[in-house]
Amino acid sequence: MNFPKKNADHEIKALCKESPNLLVALEGQDEYKKSMGRLFCENDSNKPKAFFRPKTTDDVCRVLRYASANQLQVSVLGGGHDPKGLAIIHDALVLDMSAMNHIDIDPQTATAWVEAGVNVKDLDDVTCPQGLAAVNGSCTTVGVVGFTLGGGFGFLSRTKGLAVDNCLQMEIVTATGQRIVASSQGHRHLFWVLRGAGQVGYGVVTKLQVKLHTLQEQYVGGRFWYVPMSSTKLKELLHVMSEFCRSAEDEITFNIYLITQVPGVAVDYFYDGHPSEAEGKLLPFLRSITERFGPPGESSTAVNGPWEEQTTSYVEYQQRFGEEPVKTYKMWKSAFLGELTPEVIHIIISQLEEAPVSSNPHTIGLELLGGEINRKSPDSCAYVHRDALYLFSAQAVWTPEDEAKGNAHACRQWAEETARSLLPHSLGSYQNYADCGENTRAQRLENYFGKANIQRLKELKEEYDPLGIFTREHFRL
Ligand SMILES: Cc1cc2nc3c(=O)[nH]c(=O)nc-3n(C[C@H](O)[C@H](O)[C@H](O)COP(=O)(O)OP(=O)(O)OC[C@H]3O[C@@H](n4cnc5c(N)ncnc54)[C@H](O)[C@@H]3O)c2cc1C
């Protein structure tokens, strides 16, 4: 649907009079800049008509009734971390959910209701002191609802599944302003689609209920660095890690980040089991790495001390990097991969060598999946990627100085080419990250959601958002 470009200021002001709790911010106002500033990717070109900051589900209902009646496009800003920047749409009304940040834990049932403005850190800060944790992301400022709508994996996922596998119910407001609770008991089809394809735009999720898991006091976890490391050695390291990960225990998770320009590598490791078990199952491997590649860089640490010996609490591990770095321009691309075959490793290392110089190095991420994630049936919900062992991502970064020097194009192109060169090996792309540079929209959507599911996604879209007020071009079915 093409939305009429009309000046809605007058009606917006009238709407706010009806809802005194609802903060509205128009272009030029400080609160507008504040909401714009919550995007992880710099995005100067998308200027929404207005930001609304609801405090209650009723506020959300009112905005959506108004938007539908006036055929205005709506987008939703959660934690702002979508690498595609789809939370803010040009000329749309944007619901900035940051003021809905309540968490309600029930320790008896080990569950929590989490509102749409809550981020990873907020949730860990409330659950972990009670000895409980949700399956959560590994970046503190990612929004919990946005994370869950696309799948959601973290350091607990290889033993406990994805966020979608641990989500019990969602409260959602549909395009016409109707409040619905979707679960396996009611609105089952909507619940199915929200868990994996929620970002296609079926409504605004105002809160969701998650399962919580009992935490141990201490875990083995840290990061080791080899910077610089030659590409020959990096290739060898990937072969060694790939061999180990092929049959690694579910408790073991690695996130491997190859860094361009220097080049080098940072590897996060975490053992989701008793530290005494890690002594037999993970640490011998880490020691074998040291023997083969030499002592890792000085900044390699477990959270509290020598890099492979100390233990950490879960929350300390989750929050070990503190505040997020300064904002830059970014482009991510992604692909799910099976084994890291010699051919895949060759492509990755070649692309690492080809990376253009910019003020910041770019990154190639390889995050280990599998385990419990892959034991769920691919039709249990709209997240279909149950056969992948790794999530690959190419993350290009550049600054305003690079823009001024004309380097930005090369950075973007590098991310695109890196992903495209892996397309023949790709098992799909992660809707929470980005596409893989497919040639057509149909291929892109099939890679996100699986060919067999597209028709079902369309039918549900027609049912819950017939006017397409939540539709964004990237996910248009
Ligand atoms: C640095 C970084 C680290 C990351 N780490 C991980 C990780 O460890 N694991 C992982 O699985 N993913 C990770 N991600 C990806 C992240 O989970 C997704 O980008 C997620 O969609 C971000 O949600 P958000 O609310 O922060 O972002 P937003 O940009 O605000 O929202 C993302 C999308 O969801 C929609 N949305 C958000 N809230 C709602 C709502 N309440 N109702 C309806 N639609 C909504 C938005 O419109 C947008 O399309 C990471 C991303 C970054 C940038």
Automatic annotation (TrEMBL):
Domain FAD-binding PCMH-type: 44-215
Required cofactor(s): FAD
Cited Pfam families: BBE, FAD_binding_4
InterPro entries: BBE, FAD-bd_PCMH, FAD-bd_PCMH-like_sf, FAD-bd_PCMH_sub1, FAD-bd_PCMH_sub2, FAD-linked_Oxidoreductase, Oxid_FAD_bind_N, Oxy_OxRdtase_FAD_BS
Alphabetized UniProt keyword annotations: FAD, Flavoprotein, Oxidoreductase
Keyword Oxidoreductase: yes
Family: Belongs to the oxygen-dependent FAD-linked oxidoreductase family.
PANTHER family from the UniProt entry: BINDING OXIDOREDUCTASE, PUTATIVE (AFU_ORTHOLOGUE AFUA_1G17690)-RELATED, FAD-BINDING PCMH-TYPE DOMAIN-CONTAINING PROTEIN
Name by which UniProt lists this protein: FAD-binding PCMH-type domain-containing protein
Species for this entry: Porites lobata
